[in-house]
Design a protein that fits this description.
The complex is a heterodimer of chains A (167) and B (358). With 167 residues, chain A is mostly helical. Chain A has helices at 2-7, 10-144, 149-162. Chain B has two domains: 70-133, no CATH class; 137-350, no CATH class. Chain B has helices at residues 2-24, 29-44, 136-161, 170-189, 198-215, 227-243, 247-254, 261-307, 310-350, and strands spanning 49-50, 53-57, 60-64, 67-68, 70-74, 78-82, 93-95, 98-103, 106-110, 130-131. A three-stranded antiparallel beta sheet of chain B has the order 6-5-10, with no helix packed on it. A three-stranded antiparallel beta sheet of chain B has the order 7-8-9, with no helix packed on it. Chain B starts with a helix and ends in an 8-residue tail after the last helix. The chains are: A mainly alpha (167), B mainly alpha (358).
């Protein structure tokens, strides 16, 4: 211990302290602060670059997912449209068929009706004709004076032949 | 690879210096041992001058690459002169009316003849002026400080020129700065408070590391193995810890929460002692490790000359080589430990209050 104290040089201690303190202050101003700032800045830059790269990647992924989704939606929509169109076509065909059937039935019914009424008219007119003919026959018979039975029968036969029943 | 070159230089220079001394004095083994011991002792201490090596030419000691360093004394006014004037302790320097003499690395006030009187334990009793000299350690620290300033300022500047990417030598240091931040500061201090300690932690880490590495060069520098230097560093840690400490830290020292009152009183002096012991352990650890490393390394090199035969000398060469490599590791390790423990103490100081159950 005594040797240690004997070796202790006060002058050297003073110089050493002055030099080191001055060196710390000088280096702090001219070296350590700029160096550490630059290193921090650089690290910050790297960190933010990596973060933004990650963000871009995420965005790309989102975009791709979006695209996929839109494509899928479009496909679904197209399928829907096609299906709808098919349905509409079928419906139109069916509708047309139905309508045609109804119309046809109507026409048939009308035709039947017309036939019926014509028939009625014809029957009526036939009836009238028969009545008239009967009357004529009767008239003629009465007019000609039936001389003989034979002659009468001939006449009736002749008249009946003339009246050819149309109906 | 560069470190290996350093190592070779270290061994080369050190051996040169020893060889010169050893060869010139073909005396008995004891004196060689003493000489090596004295050499190591001298190396471990700070010195007022700087030289690469020395050798003896006849009776005279010659120096290679000698540089005198400025001596600054405060003794009734500021006195400055070059340490070369001491002529390695042989000459007395007169400044004004006072005379100074260098004796075993320390400056004493003497009379005109340079008489030094001793007490019973052979310690000089002469008056010592306040010595604020720019010694070898001070010069080394100044050099390290300048080197660090230019290195790290160039790193800071290279960001601006190179789009926030380090260029040049900064590429080597940037990961170390990141390591200090991510593995020393943040885990120990916490995300919230670490920022204000970063300047200290980074500066101290590189300062200690660089000085430790310089100690492994053949320049014979031993700065971090000097108690005054480690004391100064630990003192800053101590002051920073206690000046930035929050209420919670002081509560744990003076009135430990969650224990009975008697325990609170018993713990108070222990905790208070801990406040001082923590930085004290820092200063002793760094000092002792670096000092020990230098002693072991130099002793092993010295052993080569004591063995003075092929087998022993080459064995201690291999050993000293291995120790040098370990010392390289220790240089970084001690810087890491000092920084790490400082960060840990700062962490205690700013720890947020947590629940009583702990």
């Amino acid at each position: 211990m005594e040797k240690l104290l004997g070796e202790f040089s006060f002058g050297l201690f003073i110089w050493q302290t002055v030099i080191v303190v001055a060196l710390i202050l000088m280096l702090r101003k001219f070296a350590w602060k700029p160096i550490l700032n630059t290193i921090n800045e650089r690290e910050e830059g790297i960190r933010s670059a990596m973060e933004s790269a990650e963000e871009a990647r995420q965005e790309m992924q989102n975009l791709q997912a979006d695209n996929q989704r839109i494509l899928k939606e479009a496909r679904v929509e197209r399928d829907g449209l096609l299906k709808e169109a098919r349905e509409i076509r079928q419906k139109m065909i069916d509708d047309a068929k139905g309508e045609a059937k109804v119309q046809a039935e109507q026409l048939i019914a009308q035709a039947k009706e017309a036939i019926e009424s014509e028939k009625q008219v014809a029957i009526t007119s036939l009836k009238n004709e028969v009545a008239e003919l009967s009357l004529q026959i009767a008239e003629t018979l009465t007019k000609e004076q039936l001389s003989s039975d034979k002659k009468q029968t001939e006449l009736v036969q002749k008249l009946l032949k003339e009246v050819d029943l149309k109906a | 690879m560069r470190h290996l070159v350093y190592l070779f230089f270290l061994i080369f220079f050190a051996t040169n210096a020893f060889a010169a001394d050893a060869v010139k004095e073909p005396q008995k083994e004891g004196s060689l041992k003493d000489e090596i011991k004295a050499y190591i002792q001298h190396h471990l201490k700070d010195s007022h001058d700087f030289y690469l090596g020395s050798y003896k030419e006849g009776d005279k000691k010659k120096y290679i690459g000698y540089i005198g360093l400025p001596v600054i004394l405060w003794d009734n006014g500021l006195k400055m002169f070059s340490s070369a004037k001491f002529k390695h302790g042989k000459a007395v320097v007169q400044k004004g009316s006072a005379y100074y003499k260098l004796y075993h690395g320390k400056i004493y006030k003497t009379d005109a003849a340079g008489t030094i009187s001793y007490d019973e334990e052979h310690h000089p009793t002469n008056e010592k002026p306040l010595d604020l000299s720019m010694t070898k350690s001070v010069m080394t620290m100044l050099f390290t400080a300048l080197l660090m300033f230019f290195l790290f300022r160039s790193l800071a500047r290279s960001y601006g020129k190179n789009g926030n990417i380090a260029s040049g030598v900064g590429r080597f240091f940037e990961p170390i700065i990141l390591y200090v931040r991510d593995d020393i500061a943040i885990p120990n201090i916490g995300e919230k408070h670490y920022g204000r300690y970063m300047s200290f932690l980074l500066t101290v880490f590189f300062f200690i590391w660089f000085l430790n590495l310089l100690g492994l060069t053949p320049l014979g520098i031993n700065v971090t193995g000097n108690i005054a230097v480690t004391f100064g560093l630990a003192l800053i840690t101590f002051l920073l810890t206690n000046l930035t400490a929050n209420k919670n830290y002081w509560a744990h020292i003076f009135w430990m929460p969650g224990v009975p009152v008697l325990m609170k009183i018993a713990l108070m002096p222990i905790e208070l002692l801990g406040v001082i012991i923590k930085p004290f352990s820092l200063l002793i650890r760094l000092y002792a490790n670096m000092q020990a490393g230098h002693i072991v390394l130099m002793s092993l090199i010295g052993l080569m000359f004591i063995f003075n035969n092929w087998i022993g000398s080459s064995l201690s060469f291999v050993l000293s080589f291995a120790i040098s490599i370990i010392e390289l590791l220790v240089a970084a390790l001690q810087a890491y430990i000092f920084t790490m423990l400082s960060a840990l103490y700062f962490g205690f100081a700013v720890e947020e209050h947590h629940d009583e159950a702990h």
